[in-house]
Amino acid sequence: MIVARGMGVRRGGRWLLRPVTFGVPEGVVGLAGPPGAGKSTLLATFATLRRPNAGALHILGHDITNAAALRAARAGIGYLPARFSRAEHMTAGEFVEYAAYYKRTSASTARSMMRRLDLAEAAGTELALLPADVRLRAGLAAACVHEPDVVLLDDPFGDLCAAAEPWPTGAAGPGRHALTAAMAELIPVLRSLAPTVVITADAPETLTGWCDRLFTLARGRLTEQPTHSAAARRGRTPADRRVLGAIAHDGAPHDGAPHAATNPDGAEPVPGAAPRKAGVAGHRRPARPALPRLTLPHLPLPQPPLPQLVRPRARRPPAGSASGV
To answer: What is the pLDDT of residues 188-217, one digit of tens each?
Structure first.
């Protein structure tokens, strides 16, 4: 769906994404990273709102450097920014209908999308007055009203995660339960939006467990992380699943070569088994031999003689001086 060849993105004189070649396949792809790492800028580049500073970018098979190909690529992209505060004075129905008009789609399609996302009752309410999860559904309906092939969601769970942060006392607030319930309802909806969905978040834990592929962006470099999701393990052989399970347990990358470990009786190495870690229960290190403690005899040290103190004599002033009178 998205192919980047040597693509690099710069902002303010620094590389947000160093030149790299990668591709975004079908499925749900997560992109996590700390604030300011460049996730929003990279997603805006995928949305063709800005050009990459280096390399080439193809969206849905179209080269975005060509004007005709750029229009064709934009017709198949649905983009939802992190904050759409300019539309807060609009109702949910007006917001989705405006997006349908902008994407050259009929108003009946907009109403159908709102019914699909269960927004019929919230159609006449302003976006600023809606709860965070309902406002997110309105944004999803506006971004996907033209049924795109690629959907780009910039931190869609930001408001929900902010409400779920613990209170200053350290206790968990009511937002944690609301976040868990909203995520359980929204994840199936996100999977049904388009063949490819790209989602960003600040913490990888928000995307772990349900994304097909997960990447982290830090210091201008993309790194793939294990997702631990059932959808990501579909189609793999049992041997591949065992290797990935060993990677997730040990936390070390697998180089493709079988490891050798010693049997419990210490006889022969077992091919293909992962090496055991020291310190795990049931496998203790051999005790170190105790060193003998040496006791030195107590020898009295010679005391040096103290110097004899001599009291200095007072010097008499010379005769005839003013101080001697």
So the answer is: 999 999 999 999 999 898 898 889 999 999
If you average pLDDT over residues 139-159, what whole number do you get? 93
CA distance 21 to 56: 9
Strand-strand pairing, 213-218 and 196-201: unpaired
More confident: 193 or 158: 193
- Domain covering 28-47+81-164+174-247 in this structure, CATH number: 3.40.50.300
- Where along the chain do its domains lie? 28-47+81-164+174-247
Residue type at position 147: E
Beta-carbon neighbour count of residue 22 at 10 Å? Answer: 13
Q: Kindly report, residue by residue over 89-107, the tens digit of the pLDDT.
A: 899 999 999 999 999 999 9
Query: Cα–Cα distance between 281 and 37 in angstroms, integer?
Result: 40
Sheet with 62-63: list strands edge to edge.
Answer: 14-24, 2-11, 54-59, 62-63
Neighbours of 297 (CB within 10 A): 4
CB pairs under 8 A, 24+ apart, for 264-271?
A: none
Beta-bridge partners for 216: 32, 223
Whether pTM > 0.85 for this model: the answer is no
Cα-flanking dihedrals φ and ψ of residue 184, to 5°? -65, -30
Identify the three-state secondary structure at position 166: coil
Q: What percentage of the chain reaches a pLDDT higher than 70?
A: 64
Give the closest residue to 264 by CA, choosing from 238, 251, 282, 248: 282
> At CB < 8 A and 24+ separation, what contacts does 276-282 make?
277/250
DSSP 210-269: T-SEEEEEETTEEEEE----TGGGTT--HHHHHHHHHHHHH-----SSPPEEE-TTSSSE
Residue type, 55: G
For the cut 80, the answer to whether the pLDDT of residue 169 exceeds it is no
